[in-house]
Amino acid sequence: MEKLRNHFTKILIPKGGDKVYKDECMFNFDTPESETGLYVCLNTFHGWSKEHVTKYSQKSGNCVFLHLRRNKKELPPEKEMEPEKKIARLAIGVEGGFNPDASKKRYEYEEHNSLAQQSVAGILKAESALHLAEVEAAAGAWDGEVRQVTKHADTLKQLDNGIKVPPNGWKCEHCDKTDNLWLNLTDGKILCGRRQLDGSGGNNHAVEHFEKTKYPLSVKLGTITQDGNADVYSYDEDDMVLDPNLVKHLAHFGINVKVMEKTEKTMLELEIDYNQRAWEWSRLTESGTKLVPKFGPGFAVMQVLFTVPGFVERFYHLGQTIRESYRGSNPAEDFNVQMSKLAHGLLSGRYAVAPDTIDENLDTDDLQPGISPLMFRTLVGKGHAEFSTKKQQDSMEFLEHIIKMTACNSAGAADPGSCFKFEVEDKFVCSASGKVRYVTRPDQYLPLPVPMEEAVNKEEVAAYQAQKTDAQASQKVIQPEEQVRAKIPFDVCLSKLASPEQIVAYSSAAEKEVAMQKITRLRTFPDYLVIQLVKFGIGQDWVPMKYDVSIDMPESLDLSVLRGFGLQPGEEELPETAAPSPKEPEIDAEIVQQLAEMGFPWEACRKAVHLTGNSGTEAAMNWVMEHMGDPDFADPLVIKNTSSRNDNFTPNEEGLAMLMSMGFTREQAALALKETSNSLERAADWIFSHQHELDSLLAAQSGAAAVPPPQKPSYTDGPSKYELTAFISHMGTSIFVGHYVCHIKKDGEWTIFNDNKVSKSVDPPLDLGYIYLYKRVST
Fold it and tell me: Which ranges of the sequence are coiled-coil (predicted)?
């Protein structure tokens, strides 16, 4: 006990606001469920694995830790709802713990001291830092599409017919259905829901009741929770809605939400299930074949696309050095440590160890623990409008974000993300003068258009769509073998990318806006080329949609047709004359009105029409769908005069703090906010894309006499021939929800990564991917 007393001054009790990291080690993915458990420092409340706790103790001088061990076992049915019990002890220098002085007698201290007891109790009681981050992220999540408050919330008529609904034992009043039941909130009728195309659901009795009575709102029984939430559908609004008075409306029929339990899946959960049952599911997951699980380095569950030489491997090899020098003093160190941790988790093989024997009846989810990079996700998502939430997140946007953060935090060292980066050449041909202008810009992925009008089986697709409509009307089930998707040759997509684009732009030769051709080429070719298939657009009902399409992506690729060479003999450059100062734009009021009638903010509609050059409703609608998540989406349209300076600009302090937490100076963060009108999300994108010229821009802003030219990014370049090495597929019929699956080729063999399942791929669905990673071949 005397030895413990020597450390009393360093033992702290967690207070409100203290972050307690008791879920996983700071340097690897060991958890309380790992064989050696997790050691939580009673001074900093940081968690450490057995591998790292000794070195941490020696460096920090903190010697008292809470040893958390948690055994995972299947509970009997009667105890499934009991809270999980944690096995914990306070230990110094014990077997399985750390040993600051091996030459001295070993001690084990249980919770005999009040201070230590309070600290331990505080740690066990405290919500973990990662759990709090999950809750915060979930607060910004949305279920597919945002549900609107029903117009009937305050005016709903409820009949005094004496109906009282029991808490369970429901049945449709017109058939034998006991699931998918809907309670009409006007007359209390319990009726079954719609029949789905695949034969599931109900017998349409609820919707038929509305057609007779026009009673508008129904709630799905079985989805009512004790906090008063449930699925509510408005028949005349034809949508899922929010009913803020739902508790009162249910109480009218004797339903006390406090005693209700959720027993059925919500419509969102059913949509996800349907997506998983959809006919592309079996192909993408290869569920119809016997998959052999794989283990070892590079086969840890949660495999990601960017495990390519020179990127994650760079952090893997530098991991020891990074951890040895880590002091947690700045955001760059935090990012590099988490990248090193992720690389170690994926590539070391530590979390993909093959069991001694494999029970064929055991679900492959239980064969290896894998990794759950909660700290990594929290860190890289901090301050981002999308990635700091639990919304459905686009894998291409996430990869871009990671590459930008890697570049930002690679000061003084080679940027490992450069293996993806290339220089794009945009050539503009003036129709009035025939002169040209070449503009280069950096990029890190190649978006490949998907021209649906070029499908080689258009007749079959049209016939199938008609069959779907007829089947839905007659409640007939279409079998998977009858289903048809559009087939588009890869060469057609490539040709679309290479073709000139017609735009309207200011010509210094004509001194006005004229028609121009824009031709895009690649000035350099990276070591690893990421290709995104643009498989989404706007449907006839103006709703964002995902294309159901098959594209024969080649495993060997030659992109020499896209090579750009700059100004060619005989071409004359457009003179470098600035466009006139902006003036109040002419905006097509009719297009603005059409968009506004769809429910979008008026200023957003004006902005969409202006920024698409009054080129039509479809173009403006596409802009709206792409930018409706922007923080300034509904702000008034501002035409920026780049020749004027805003000396009275005041940067948002919260935005400054967030950008500075990413490693930028206050001056750099202020410049980014100034350039984006204090929009934090746009400022983050702006500062990452201009990081090579920040000092030059700041000097120019201050009016310095000599402004050094911005350093031009360096690019790798080489032959334009590639081999496919990985691809990511998105499952689901909606762009708002779904599931990602990854296939990676290693040592000439394809492997499928699907959550906790890592197996040898038998039939990789090369034609159904969303993002493709190609590696350059030298010959």
Answer: none
Q: Which of 146, 154, 159, 145 is nearest to 243 (CA)?
A: 154
Give domain limits for the chain: 2-126, 148-265, 312-390+400-410+715-776, 419-562, 589-702
Task: Tell me, yes or no, if the pTM score tops 0.70.
Answer: no
In 3D, which of 435, 596, 532 has the Cα closest to residue 730? Answer: 532
Q: Per the annotation, does 419 bind a ligand?
A: no
CATH number of 148-265: 3.30.40.10
The strands making up 501-507's β-sheet, listed across from edge to edge, are: 436-443, 422-430, 512-522, 501-507
Q: Which CATH number fits domain 419-562: 3.90.70.10, 3.40.718.10, 3.90.1800.10, 3.90.700.10?
A: 3.90.70.10
Binding site annotation covers 408? no
Domain 589-702 CATH (choose: 1.10.8.10, 1.10.3720.10, 2.120.10.30, 2.60.120.200) = 1.10.8.10
| 763/229 Cα distance (integer angstroms) | 43
192 is in an annotated binding site: yes
Contacts of 335 (CB under 8 A, 6+ apart): 379, 380, 405, 406, 409, 663
As to burial, measured by CB atoms within 10 angstroms (0-12 exposed, 13-18 middle, 19+ buried), residue 321 is exposed
Two tokens at 569? Answer: 């003999």
Residue type, 294: K
Q: Which tens digit of pLDDT belongs to each residue from 175-192?
A: 988 888 999 999 999 999
Beta bridge partners, 537, equal 545
Buried (b) or exposed (e) across 133-152, using 16+ Cβ within 10 A? bbeebeeeeebbeebeebeb
Q: CATH code for 2-126? A: 3.30.40.10
Architecture per CATH, domain 312-390+400-410+715-776, reads as Alpha-Beta Complex (3.90)
Q: Are 127 and 134 in contact (CB under 8 A)?
A: no
Q: Which residue has the higher pLDDT, 303 or 214?
A: 214
Residue 324 clears pLDDT 60, i.e. is over it? yes
Task: Quickly state the pLDDT bin for 556 (edges 50, 70, 90).
Answer: very high
741 three-state secondary structure: strand
Strand order in 239-242's β-sheet?
148-149, 239-242, 232-234, 217-220, 181-184, 190-192
Residue 56: Cβ-neighbour burial (10 angstroms; 0-12, 13-18, 19+): buried
For the chain, the 3-state helix, strand and coil shares in percent, each to the nearest 5, are 30, 20, 50
Q: How many residues does the chain have?
A: 779
Identify the burial level of 231 via C-beta atoms within 10 angstroms of its C-beta, where 0-12 means exposed, 13-18 middle and 19 or more buried: buried
Q: Alpha-carbon torsion 375, 378, 382, 386, what sign?
A: positive
Which DSSP helix (H) or strand (E) runs through 315?
A: helix 312-325
Q: How far apart are CA 303 and CA 402, in angstroms?
A: 15
Return the H-helix or E-strand segment holding 77: none
Q: Average the pLDDT over 203-208 and give the result.
A: 91
Return the structure tokens found at 368.
């290896």
Contact status, residue 302 vs residue 332, Cβ threshold 8 Å: no
Q: Torsion over CA of 625, 631, 636 and 640, rounded to 10 degrees?
A: -100
- Tell me how far apart the alpha carbons of residues 406 and 336 are, in angstroms, rounded to a whole number: 8
Instruction: Quote the distance between the C-alpha of residue 495 and its chain's center.
Output: 30
Contact assessment for residue 167 and residue 255, using Cβ atoms and an 8 Å cutoff: yes
Q: Could you tell me the two tokens for 610?
A: 């202006």
In 3D space, the residue among 1, 2, 3, 20 whose CA is nearest the CA of residue 119 turns out to be 20
Q: Which of 369, 337, 723, 249 is nearest to 529 (CA)?
A: 723
Q: Say yes or no: do domains 2-126 and 148-265 share a fold.
A: yes
pLDDT at 308 over 60: no
**Residue 25 assigned to a binding site:** no
CA distances to 492, 513, 566, 568 from 437, rounded to whole Å, are 27, 15, 9, 11
| Rounded Cα–Cα distance for residues 275 and 284 (Å) | 12
